[in-house]
Amino acid sequence: MNLIPPEGATPTILMVDDVPENLKLLARILSREGYKVRPVSSGAHALRAIEIAPPDLILLDITMPDMDGYAVCARLKSDAKLATVPVIFLSALSDPEAKVRAFQSGGVDYITKPFQAEEVLARVECQLKLRGLQLSLEKRNRELADVNRQLNEASLMRDNLVQMIVHDMRSPLTVQMGFLDVLMETVSASLDDTGRSCLAAARQSSVRLVNMVNSMLDVNRLESGNLPVCLTPNPLKAILAEAMALYRPILEQRQLVLELPETLEPVHCDAYLIRRVMENLIGNALRFTNPDGVIRVAVSVGEANEFLIKVIDDGVGIAPAHHGIIFEKFGQVGPHTKNSSGMGLTFCRLAIEAHGGRIGVDSELGKGSTFWFTLPRDPVTQ
Fold first, then answer.
1. Are the C-beta atoms of residues 318 and 363 closer than 8 Å to each other?
2. How confident is the model at residue 335 (pLDDT cuts 50, 70, 90)?
3. What pLDDT is stored for residue 321 in this prediction?
């Protein structure tokens, strides 16, 4: 059932009154103003007429035999397809109780008989304008919903294509990094400083590309719930050492230091995800730390019964206004945009939140950055 009249169509008004003289008078008043009028003499006839062809507005008497105006309005409002049709009560009942009951049954206005033609026309015009605005808004909302659906479909198609391409990139990149490792082990000593620097830069770029590819794939899997988090007791020192080992061949003059408490109990976590988080955070620090700077990986036990892991660099820093943005999908600001997909920190946030932990950054421009995250000491119930 279409409740939206064609553009420029004459508004249709259904008049319901058991007194023929009232119907004739109303019809004459409204017809002179160019409205299309449909008079009916009972509530039952009104409901049938509305079901066949919904009007733009209803003028409804209250006191009628068999079915009064309250019952007609209540029946109309109980039908989701017809509930938006406005109803103006037009009745000889002038007591407040009758008016309150009229509005409670779903009426939008109330005119007391005997009425003035100017008053009826003014209130009819007002309600028809509101009705037109409402229908225009509903139409616009449907159009926007359709556009949004199309955009979502296009976005899904794009994401699927990107995922397919990125997935296919991972294998050759991994092979490339493996060959570069072999070259660094076998021929690096025979190269001059320029050759060794080029080889180290090539491997560093390969590590970044592999991390970017893995982050994009894992973000998609975490968001869609297709990357399960397997919580088991793991030695945190071993996870951190493995992540740090990935970057030791390309440190050059920089230092990468691990600071641990004297005793460190196993942490219930997904070792793969936490290692990947550390690889991303250390990789970020390495890109922005001074050529002879120090990157510290520090672990402590916080007051909230949780492990606190920090990656501290002495690089260019990040303005406080940008601290939240960098953890959003494709969120990149300032110097941290260099050679970044904007997905690594998003992956870190999703992975840590999946563990029931928190992640953040403390930083100022020119004063380095401290990226930190927490892991609960007690296992998180999945």
1. yes
2. very low
3. 81
Tokens of 341: 């997909």
Q: How far apart are CA 230 and CA 323, in angstroms?
A: 29
Listed residue (218, 95, 222) closest to 167, CA to CA: 218
Non-local CB neighbours of 25 within 8 Å, separated by 6+ positions: none
Answer yes or no: is pLDDT of 379 > 70. Answer: no
Residue in 26, 27, 34, 28 with CA at minimum distance from that of residue 10? 34
pLDDT of residue 208: 75
User: Could you give the percent of the chain with pLDDT greater than 90?
Assistant: 49
- Within 13 A of 269's CA, how many CA atoms are on the CB side? 30
Question: Does 114 sit behind a cis peptide bond, omega within 30 degrees of 0 on the bond before it?
Answer: yes
Model pTM score? 0.51
pLDDT tens track for 67-107: 999 999 999 999 988 898 999 999 999 999 999 999 999 99
CA 340 – CA 228 distance, rounded (Å): 26
Spatial contact of 106 and 73, defined as CB atoms under 8 Å apart: yes
Antiparallel, parallel or unpaired: β 36-40 and 57-60: unpaired
Long-range contacts of 45-51 (CB under 8 A, 24+ apart): 45/16, 46/14, 46/16, 46/72, 47/72, 47/75, 47/76, 49/14, 50/14, 50/76, 50/82, 50/85, 51/82
